[in-house]
Specification:
31% strand, alpha+beta, 5 helices
Length: 162
C-alpha cells in the first residue's frame, strides 16, 4: 500500500459489505468537508478504481431541477482525488492542477462517477519526485448517458522543499 490513506482503506475494505460505503464516505467527508456538504456517497475504493454516487436532492439542485453543474464538478474532483490519493506517497502532497469539464446535455436524476488510474500512472506517481497525471472520470446519469465529460489533472510535490 502506498500511503496511510490506502492502508486505512484496506482495513475498511475488509469490513462487512453493509458497512463499507458508510465508513468510506464518513472518512473522506471528515477530511474533505465540502464533499460532505454535497452529499456524495462513496461506493467503492481500490488503488485504481473509485465509484461515487450523488443523489439528485434539493441541496444540490439547480433552477431546473437537475444536479447543479458545480455539484457535478465536486463529484468528478472527489472521485479522481480519491483514486489519486490512494497512490500518492505520504512524503508528497496531492494537488488539483486543472479541471476540464464539458457539459453535453441536461443531467437527469442521480449521477454516478467512476474514476480510474492505469498501472502506468500508478508507477509514475510512485517513482517520480514530482509530476502530474490526467485522470478521466466517467459520469453517467439515471438515463445511462454521459451528460458531462471530465478530465482532472492532479499533481504531486514533495512535502520537503529542497
Amino acid at each position: 500500500m502506498a500511503n496511510n490513506f490506502s492502508r486505512i482503506m484496506g482495513k475498511i475494505n475488509r469490513s462487512p459489505d453493509f458497512m463499507r460505503s458508510f465508513l468510506i464516505t464518513k472518512l473522506f467527508c471528515s477530511k474533505v468537508k465540502f464533499a460532505g456538504t454535497s452529499g456524495i456517497k462513496i461506493l467503492k475504493v481500490s488503488e485504481n478504481v473509485v465509484e461515487i454516487k450523488l443523489a439528485n436532492k434539493k441541496r444540490v439542485r439547480n433552477h431546473i431541477g437537475g444536479i447543479h453543474a458545480v455539484a457535478a464538478a465536486v463529484l468528478a474532483e472527489s472521485a479522481t482525488g480519491i483514486v489519486f490519493g490512494m497512490n500518492v506517497p505520504d512524503s508528497h502532497i496531492p494537488l488539483i492542477k486543472s479541471m476540464t469539464i464539458n457539459y453535453q446535455r441536461r443531467m437527469q436524476g442521480d449521477l454516478h462517477a467512476v474514476a480510474t488510474l492505469s498501472a502506468e500512472q500508478i508507477v509514475e506517481i510512485n517513482s517520480s519526485e514530482k509530476g502530474d497525471v490526467t485522470i478521466a472520470v466517467k459520469i453517467t446519469d439515471e438515463s445511462g448517458q454521459e451528460p458531462i465529460e471530465c478530465l482532472m489533472q492532479w499533481a504531486w510535490v514533495s512535502k520537503v522543499r529542497k
